[in-house]
Amino acid sequence: xxxxxxxxxxxxxxxxxxxxxxxxxxxxxxxxxxxxxxxxxxxxxxxxxxxxxxxxxxxxxxxxxxxxxxxxxxxxxxxxxxxxxxxxxxxxxxxxxxxxxxxxxxxxxxxxxxxxxxxxxxxxxxxxxxxxxxxxxxxxxxxxxxxxxxxxxxxxxxxxxxxxxxxxxxxxxxxxxxxxxxxxxxxxxxxxxxxxxxxxxxxxxxxxxxxxxxxxxxxxxxxxxxxxxxxxxxxxxxxxxxxxxxxxxxxxxxxxxxxxxxxxxxxxxxxxxxxxxxxxxxxxxxxxxxxxxxxxxxxxxxxxxxxxxxxxxxxxxxx
Amino acid sequence: xxxxxxxxxxxxxxxxxxxxxxxxxxxxxxxxxxxxxxxxxxxxxxxxxxxxxxxxxxxxxxxxxxxxxxxxxxxxxxxxxxxxxxxxxxxxxxxxxxxxxxxxxxxxxxxxxxxxxxxxxxxxxxxxxxxxxxxxxxxxxxxxxxxxxxxxxxxxxxxxxxxxxxxxxxxxxxxxxxxxxxxxxxxxxxxxxxxxxxxxxxxxxxxxxxxxxxxxxxxxxxxxxxxxxxxxxxxxxxxxxxxxxxxxxxxxxxxxxxxxxxxxxxxxxxxxxxxxxxxxxxxxxxxxxxxxxxxxxxxxxxxxxxxxxxxxxxxxxxx
Lengths: 319, 319
Fold this sequence. Notes:
The structure is a homodimer. By secondary structure, chain A is α/β, with parallel strands linked by helices. Chain A has 2 domains: about 5-205 and about 290-310, Alpha-Beta Barrel (TIM Barrel), CATH 3.20.20; about 215-285, no CATH class. Chain A has 14 helices and 11 strands. In chain A, helix 11 runs antiparallel to helix 12 (about 250-260). The longest helix of chain A has 18 residues, at about 295-315. Chain A is globular and about 50 Å long. At the A-B interface, helix 7, helix 8 and helix 14 of A face helix 7, helix 8 and helix 14 of B.
């Protein structure tokens, strides 16, 4: 079995705790590191100073390395990178932007760089840009998502055919069973978001955590396709988005109205402040399978137990 | 490992060749049976007399049992069932309708009955209706599809939690690797469509088979969501559907125009007659991974080789 991911990040289990805006701060990243997996601080909409605070705090909570997840869409990414580098961070997961933009710079500073992709062509671009590994994220994942709508089941083997660097599968992975599935599809590791959003150490508001626990099979849907596709928990805000998308308006007018509806701080309002009606609640399809809010060490131990169970039950031969 | 599916259908490998309208006739079903898996004649739009011809022909091509796939939406299903029963068919896969409608009748006639589902609530209804197993079909599958858009990765574990009868996973399964993934997720067997559509024995027109081989990661998309969601290869007909769906018309008018555009025989025109521009070409996301047109026995042997490889490579323990 591939040791590529455990070796690359010097971790015990080939599991990445996905960077999640307003959900994965210092506490979750450190708890992940202490549980033997890679923790990521989701720098998303963080002001550079807030990111610094989270990095310094995480360093007091664990002696193990952790990383920073950086969507390249946002304005202050240069400052975020400078602060993270100065604080000693050596692992960067970038997403939502050109993988060529920062990879060489970060590699020259001795960092490990991973970029998030949702299709095999972008994965090839990432490899050409010199990243160490890619995250391949399927349609079922929470938050921002690719327009090709490739599911984890079909995405991983397609990416495997197009690149030779390590692949971290993401999207729909909430148990050791789906983790094992990702490995059989050709992944070298997994990135898990939603399952870890509903843990004790996640920064998500308790209302949001409870709504993940209560979520059913039809609780999430890919939304805002006319702007940037994002998988959301269906609430009042989601419905307002759908009303605009399904209205008989032209595309430009729809985009204007969506941007205006989104405004500022919608995600913070929902995920951090717990406004379940008017907040933006980013979560994956796998929410329908999440039934509790464990501590991270317990959650990781359970994933490994389930993985072993799945692995032992898979037959080597038929008949 | 579960022997439920091989025992239920008296087959060597726990693989079902999915019933595909205009693609899985006598030749494909018989070749499947001869290769050690369950073959299904896709009765879809067949006139009862044509179905009879296919059943009788398949019986001359194999001595093994095979089944009939029956979408319950169509008009002549009672005649189709009567003809199949009279010809000695004992295995029925039903879909797109109420599982209670024919299950008891067919069970009373000594048949094995399986119903196709795309969500855990319908799966429970199927179990309550007395079916012997269910097919759980994810968003990545070709052809008709559920409105919840649950992918195979999240669907199988959710269904596993809601029922105790055997589960046959479908959607995105085109190799022994994805087959192994389905088993780790909790499936007892797999149903494969697209991969078998591009075989020597499939009735698909050679043009359609070649377009499957040429398909890339972005070649299919879930379409006709305003009518009945169906995953299609993107061609001119697909684009005409999209133009209606994206137009500023109200839902009722969209439906009228879609029904009018669809007309009669669109699927036959595309898949059987090879009209790649104006035909309806139903195929799964996994088309992007299909590179050749093998004979069925070779195709099944390859699936099993790949499954063994995936199974051997999955570690029992981390460390």
